[in-house]
Specification:
67% helix; single chain; mainly alpha; two-stranded antiparallel sheet; elongated; two-stranded parallel ribbon
Length: 504
C-alpha cells in the first residue's frame, strides 16, 4: 500500500525511494517474514474469531475471511518471498493477498479496531516469549548440571581465592553452590521479565483503543498470553517488556562471566586445581606440550558478547520518546534476537563443560600446604580451646604464618615450633595444644568440617542447601511448563475455532 499523505506541489517521486527500499524496507521485510509470518497468521485468525464472537462479523463474512487466511497460510511460503516495493511491509502483503482471495469488502473488515502498532508489539512479544522460553530451558539445564556437580563434589577440597591470592580451603561443591544461587536469582529475573512480556497489546490499536466493542481479553487468550495489557497507551509506548527481557538476559551472562574467569585461572598450569579433559582441550600448532582449554575462552568472550548486545538494546531505548517510535520496533527487535542465539551457545557449552571438570586433589593439597590457608582456623581454635581473645589469637596465627612462609615451609610440618613460641609470648603461658592436635587443626578437611553454620561448606549445611536448590529448580520447571501448556492450549483452541469458522 502506498503512503497516504498529501504530495508537495512539485513532488513527482514514487514510494519507495530505491535507497530507502534497500537500506530499510528490504531488511525489515526479510526479518519479518522469517521471524513473524507465522505469528501474524495467528493474530489474523484470532482477530477473525474475536470479531465474529462480539458480533462485528457475521458468519458468512467470518467464514470467508477464515478460509482466505487459511488458504494464504497453506499456499504462501514466507521464506520464498522477495520484497519488490509494491507494498510497504509484510502486513500489507498479506492484506493484499487476502483481498485477492475474498475481495476488498470482506478483507477490509479484518482490520476493524486494530493498527499495525498493536499488531507489531504483539508480534514482538510473541517472538520474545519464545526467545525467553528457550533461554529458560537452557538455563534450567545448566542449573540442573550445576546442582548435580555440586552434590558430587560437595566434599572435594579446593582453594578459595580472594584478591587473586589463596585465602581459605573450601569445596568445589560449595563454590558451585554460590554459582547456583546467583543463577536461581537470575532465572527469577527472567521469569519476572517473561511475565511482563506475557501481556497482550492487541486491541490497543494505534494507542487509545477504538469505539468498537472488541474483546481484548479474548484476543490475549486466543494468542496464548496470560492477560491483556491494560493501559492502551502503555501497550504501544512503554516497551518495558523489551528492557525487562534484555536486562534479565544481560545479568545472567554478566554473572556467569565471573566464574568463567575463575575457570580460566583455576585451570592454568601454575594453579591447576581443576582438570579439563581432552575432549575440551586444543593443542598448540607449534608447542606440543600445551593443553589449551580454549572452550573456557570461548565461554568468556561469547558471554561478553551477550552482555554487550543486551546492553545495546537498553541503550537504544534510552532517551526515546514515550510513544510509538521506530527505535523500539522491527530493526531493534531483530538486532536483539542475536543476543539470544549467542546466549544459547554459551549455556549449551557450559552445561556440557561443568560435568566434565574434575578437581586435581594433588595440586590442591600441595598448594594448600604451601600457602598457610588454614591459619584462620588456628586462630579460631585458640579462642575455643585456650580461651584467649580473637585479636590475641590472630597475633599468634600471624606470627606462625610469617615463620612458615619465611622458611618456604608447610604449616603442618614447620608451624608447630613457631606456634609454641608465639603463643607463649602472647599469652604468657604454654599452650595445651600438642603437635598431633595442631596438625589436625590446620588440616584443610578439619577447616571445612567445622564450618557447619548456615550456608557454610560443611556436609550438613551443604546437604540442606542442595535440597533447597532442587526445590527451587522444580518450582521454575513448573512455571516454565505451565507457560508451555498455556501456549499449546491456545494454539489448539485457535485451530479449533479456525476449523469451526471454516465449516469443517
Amino acid at each position: 500500500m502506498k503512503a497516504m499523505q498529501p504530495e508537495g506541489p512539485q513532488d513527482t517521486t514514487e514510494f519507495p525511494d530505491p535507497v530507502y527500499k534497500d537500506t530499510v524496507l528490504v531488511p525489515l521485510f526479510d526479518d519479518a517474514k522469517t521471524q513473524h509470518a507465522g505469528d501474524l497468521d495467528r493474530i489474523n485468525r484470532a482477530q477473525a474469531v474475536m470479531l465474529h464472537e462480539v458480533g462485528l462479523l457475521d458468519l458468512d463474512h467470518a467464514r470467508a475471511l477464515m478460509r482466505g487466511l487459511v488458504e494464504i497460510s497453506r499456499s504462501l511460503d514466507p521464506e520464498k518471498l522477495v520484497y519488490d516495493g509494491s507494498v510497504e511491509d509484510l502486513f500489507f502483503l498479506i492484506e493484499n493477498e487476502l483481498i485477492g482471495r475474498v475481495g476488498k469488502d470482506i478483507a477490509g473488515r479484518l482490520h476493524t479496531g486494530r493498527s499495525r502498532n498493536d499488531i507489531d508489539h504483539t508480534l514482538f512479544k510473541m517472538s520474545l516469549k519464545r526467545e525467553l522460553d528457550g533461554l529458560l530451558k537452557r538455563s534450567l539445564r545448566l542449573l540442573g548440571a550445576l546442582i548435580d556437580k555440586a552434590e558430587a563434589e560437595s566434599a572435594s577440597l579446593i582453594i578459595a581465592y580472594t584478591h587473586g591470592q589463596p585465602a581459605q580451603p573450601g569445596t568445589f561443591g560449595h563454590y558451585l553452590g554460590a554459582m547456583i544461587e546467583v543463577l536461581i536469582r537470575d532465572i527469577e529475573r527472567v521469569l519476572a521479565a517473561r511475565r511482563v512480556v506475557d501481556l497482550c497489546s492487541m486491541g490497543a490499536a494505534a494507542i487509545t483503543t477504538s469505539g468498537f466493542p472488541l474483546d481484548r481479553r479474548r484476543m490475549a487468550e486466543l494468542l496464548g498470553f496470560s492477560a491483556a495489557q491494560e493501559n492502551s497507551y502503555g501497550c504501544i509506548a512503554a516497551a518495558d517488556y523489551v528492557t525487562s527481557a534484555y536486562s534479565a538476559l544481560q545479568l545472567i551472562f554478566l554473572h556467569l562471566g565471573r566464574p568463567i574467569q575463575d575457570l580460566q585461572f583455576w585451570t592454568s598450569f601454575e594453579v591447576a586445581q581443576l582438570y579439563v579433559p581432552n575432549a575440551f582441550v586444543q593443542i598448540s600448532s607449534i608447542m606440543p606440550q600445551k593443553r589449551n582449554p580454549v572452550p573456557i575462552e570461548h565461554l568468556r568472550h561469547l558471554a561478553s558478547q551477550v552482555v554487550g548486545r543486551a546492553g545495546a538494546m537498553l541503550t537504544v531505548v534510552h532517551n526515546t520518546p514515550f510513544t510509538d517510535i521506530n527505535d523500539i520496533e522491527g530493526e531493534t527487535q531483530s538486532f536483539g534476537y542475536g543476543a539470544f542465539r549467542t546466549a544459547a551457545r554459551v549455556l549449551d557449552l557450559l552445561t556440557a563443560l561443568v560435568p566434565a571438570l574434575s578437581v586435581r586433589q594433588d595440586r590442591v593439597d600441595r598448594n594448600s600446604r604451601k600457602s598457610c590457608i588454614t591459619i584462620t582456623e588456628l586462630a579460631d581454635s585458640l579462642v575455643r580451646i585456650e580461651g584467649i581473645s580473637f585479636r590475641q589469637a590472630h597475633h599468634v596465627a600471624a606470627a606462625v604464618a610469617r615463620a612458615v612462609v619465611g622458611v618456604d615451609g608447610e604449616l603442618a610440618v614447620d608451624g608447630y615450633a613457631p606456634f609454641v613460641a608465639a603463643f607463649a609470648a602472647e599469652a604468657g603461658r604454654a599452650s595445651r595444644i600438642d603437635r598431633e592436635r595442631f596438625v589436625e587443626i590446620v588440616s584443610a578437611r578439619h577447616f571445612v568440617e567445622v564450618r557447619s553454620n548456615f550456608g557454610g561448606p560443611a556436609p550438613d549445611p551443604m546437604a540442606r542447601a542442595l535440597a533447597k536448590y532442587r526445590s527451587e529448580m522444580a518450582r521454575f520447571e513448573d512455571e516454565h511448563q505451565a507457560n508451555a501448556d498455556r501456549e499449546a492450549a491456545a494454539i489448539r483452541r485457535l485451530d479449533e475455532r479456525t476449523a469451526a469458522l471454516q465449516g469443517e
